[in-house]
Amino acid sequence: MKFLLVFDFDHTIIDENSDTWIVKCAPERKLPNGLRNSYQPGHWTEYMGRVFVYLGDNGVKEDEMKRTMTTIPFTAGMIDLLGFIGENKELFDCIIVSDSNTVFIDWILKAADFHKVFDEVFTNPAAFSSTGYLTVQHFHAHHCAKCPKNLCKRRVLKEFLDKQLERGVSYTQIVYIGDGGNDLCPVMFLKKNDIAMPRQGYTLEKKISQLAQSLSPVQCSVLVWSSAIDIMSYLKLLIKE
Question: Which residues are annotated as a binding site for Mg(2+)?
């Protein structure tokens, strides 16, 4: 009996957006209007690439970025929740599927000593170039019209589950914890026995309730959370059953 926990990262594990937090490193902690206005819907990764070039051009180095990123607060109750999952790893496989990047997530999880809680992290690959600039790439190419061009979380989840089945691992239940619009696609993939846990007051919760109103509700159960303690209470019930 094993459960799969799937976490988004920004506004779910951490209480901020890691990509917008990095702007604190910019001169006067803001971006020039031309750069800010250059974002086009569905092309966030390209936009962040330009932000990283701007930071590099202004002499912002890796250590300063790392110091800034590791000050991001975790969401309320999240430290307790991740501690609880870490103590019960024999029951829970745990992955992150995020539109952030490998460098930011790695820094934040390692600084708080939570990297061992997660079995895999699926996010946009990032690295520092030989000139000290942070570069970011698309996670994959896909054909899903609902998702941003660089990442379809449903496809990531499906491929992960297929790979696990090949290894002989199947899950009693999938618990999907997220907040954003790009979490809807994987939530719609979940089955009747699974559970979606959207963060209260965020886009995912609103989109799920719009679907229910238009009489095409998601198949899985839905449990809204505002503190990660709500998630921990649910997991404690699960492992008692």
Answer: 8, 10, 179
8 is an active site residue: yes
Measured CA to CA, the distance from residue 107 to residue 137 in angstroms comes to 18
206-233 burial: b if 16+ Cβ within 10 Å, else e: ebbeebeeeeeebebebebbebbebbbe
pLDDT bucket at 149, cuts 50 / 70 / 90: confident
Domain ranges of the chain: 3-15+74-239, 19-70
Residues 4-21 pLDDT 10s = 999 999 999 999 999 999
Cβ proximity of 95 and 122 under 8 Å: yes
Annotated binding site for substrate: 19, 99
- Does pLDDT of 214 surpass 90? no
pLDDT tens, position by position, 154-187: 999 999 999 999 999 999 999 999 999 999 999 9
Question: Superfamily for 3-15+74-239?
Answer: HAD superfamily/HAD-like (3.40.50.1000)
Binding residues: 8, 10, 19, 99, 179
Out of 10, 93, 183, 194, pick the active-site residue: 10
Residue 212 to residue 57: CA distance in whole angstroms: 48
